[in-house]
Write a structure and sequence with these properties.
With 484 residues, the chain is an alpha/beta fold. It folds into three domains: 58 residues; 275 residues, 4-Layer Sandwich (Purple Acid Phosphatase, chain A, domain 2), CATH 3.60.21.50; 94 residues, Nucleic acid-binding proteins (OB fold (Dihydrolipoamide Acetyltransferase, E2P), Beta Barrel). The protein is built from twelve helices and 19 strands. Helix 8 links the parallel strand 10 and strand 11. The chain is globular, with a radius of gyration of 23 Å. The structure holds fe (ii) ion. The site of fe (ii) ion has 6 residues, from loops.
């Protein structure tokens, strides 16, 4: 265990004081505990002291604060809708030609540049071509990362491009705090630095960065308490049609819902994708299917959803196992599959923003977690919340192009986190966890499927049958366990 704890700390380029380590080791769940602490630490923090751990435990850096709220008179509420401008359904423009890709990346660049320039510390940026005409004065520029190199001495070289097509090398010295940042291709960053002429006159100038600015969420962002007394639940990766669907646990949850959902004013449920197991998603999948017909899988799902009390409004969007195009953003499920669904089910694309009683909820299935984990050394499948935190830091759900997550080049990049959500939920990796990061309730919403053979062979242990519930008034998060 000691090795695992210390390597989790090392992966984030941090150090754990011996007396802080002791507190972690004494915790019942040391790995979950250290991961939560690491996620809650400031980005530029290097040493974690005993006091930091104590602050985390008693000062509630990583968990929800008790907050007062005013009880409203109405209990059954149905104030939920999909934010139309964030839903690709019926609006796809891409035809797959080069022009589409150019427009797509221009939109990503401009959207994130807008977020960066709203940061007072960064302010207005200048085009790269203009910045490179200066020498020995500070410039603020925005670039999309084209490539990254780490040299033997730990300094970093980036090749960046702006929306005018200017390309430039950026050098980050090893001893600069900026070198501690996570960098990935196709990410948009702000750079504060100094242009330098190249000794070789035939080569273009470069910029030496003193600071890297991520779009991120401002440190001052917080959960504004409202008078809502409703709660919202998340049921991800249900996987109806799989032999490993946890029918008993699901029924236990439904029993609780029928008996007690009104006691916590559970008025809304979001399903963040993989509602069915699908067909032909991976080799030999048919051996793991209890329902081998895609239409019948959705029919069975409709029956399961009918058991949920009528007053609860539901939002269902697809994941990579569902019957829509795999490229993201994915449109809503077609009504050939969903015509049996009751009227309390709203269908939307993936990702999408949903508004419930004034709360902004960003729900994304999470396919890109595969790409984050395989491209960023510090991120692992065991800690999906840390991946979600990086999505927030970069204000993009899936920056990497050309990996497992197919990205459709729409005119608008729907995967940019343009609006700061109150709740950000994702699934896909079948883990369960939550973290309050700068006021955003981040949730990884479990699964209703037991460990599959594929997962067993890859030593992956899911955390199934957990239903996260968030109070829309005060932001308290509860993880309700229905495992039988
Ligand atoms: Fe799944």
């Amino acid at each position: 265990m000691r090795g695992e704890i210390l390597s989790a700390v090392e992966r984030r380029n941090m150090f754990l004081a011996p007396d802080a380590y002791k507190l972690v080791e004494e915790n019942n769940e040391p790995m979950a505990f250290i991961n939560s602490i690491l996620n809650a630490m400031k980005d530029n923090q290097i040493f974690i002291t005993k006091q930091d751990v104590l602050d985390f435990m008693y000062g509630d850096k990583g968990t929800m604060k008790e907050e007062k709220y005013i009880k409203p008179a109405v209990k059954f509420c149905s104030d939920i809708h999909v934010v139309d401008s964030t839903d690709i359904t019926g609006k796809s423009t891409c035809t797959g030609v080069i022009k589409d890709f150019s427009k797509y990346f221009q939109d990503r660049y401009r959207s994130i540049k807008r977020i960066l320039e709203s940061n007072r510390k960064f302010g207005q940026s200048m085009p790269l071509a203009k910045a490179l005409s200066y020498t020995d004065r500070e410039v603020h520029v925005v670039g999309i990362i084209y490539s990254k190199n780490t040299y033997d001495n730990k300094s970093i070289g980036l090749k960046i491009e702006d929306d005018q097509g200017t390309i430039c090398n950026v050098y980050i010295p090893a001893d600069s705090p900026a070198s501690k940042n996570i960098f990935i291709e196709d990410q948009v960053i702000g750079i504060i630095g100094t242009p330098r002429k190249n000794k070789d006159k035939d080569k273009p100038p470069s910029i030496t960065a003193s600071e890297i600015i991520n779009p991120d969420v401002p440190e001052t962002n917080n959960w504004q308490i409202s008078d809502s007394d409703s709660t919202i639940a998340f049921l991800s990766d249900v996987h109806i049609g799989s032999t490993t669907f946890l029918d008993k646990s699901w029924k236990k949850m439904i029993r609780w819902m029928k008996e007690a959902s009104t006691s916590i004013n559970l008025n809304y449920i979001v399903f963040p994708g993989d509602v069915v197991d699908g067909i032909g998603i991976f080799p030999d999948q048919e051996k793991e299917l209890s329902i081998a017909d895609i239409y019948e899988q959705y029919e069975a799902l409709a029956e399961y959803l009918k058991d949920i009390p009528d007053h609860i409004k539901m939002v269902v969007h697809p994941g990579n196992h569902d019957a829509v195009r795999p490229a993201e953003p994915q449109p809503a499920l077609n009504d050939v599959f969903t015509k049996m669904f009751d009227s309390n089910v709203i269908l939307s694309g993936n990702p999408v923003y949903v508004e419930a009683e004034g709360r902004k909820i960003l729900t994304y299935h999470g396919r890109s977690i595969d790409d984050w984990v395989s491209n960023v050394q510090q991120l692992t499948y065991n800690d999906p919340i840390a991946v979600m935190k990086q999505m927030v830091v970069m204000r993009h759900l899936a920056p990497l192009y050309g990996q497992k997550t197919a990205l459709a080049p729409e005119e608008k990049d729907y995967l940019v986190m343009n609006t700061i959500p109150d709740i950000f939920v994702s699934g896909h990796v079948h883990g369960a966890g939550h973290l309050n990061y700068r006021g955003v309730r981040m949730i990884n919403a479990s699964t209703w499927q037991d460990q599959t053979d594929y997962q067993r062979n890859h030593n992956f242990n899911p955390e199934p049958a957990i239903m996260p519930v968030v109070h829309l008034g005060n932001g308290t998060v509860k993880m309700m366990n229905f495992r039988t």
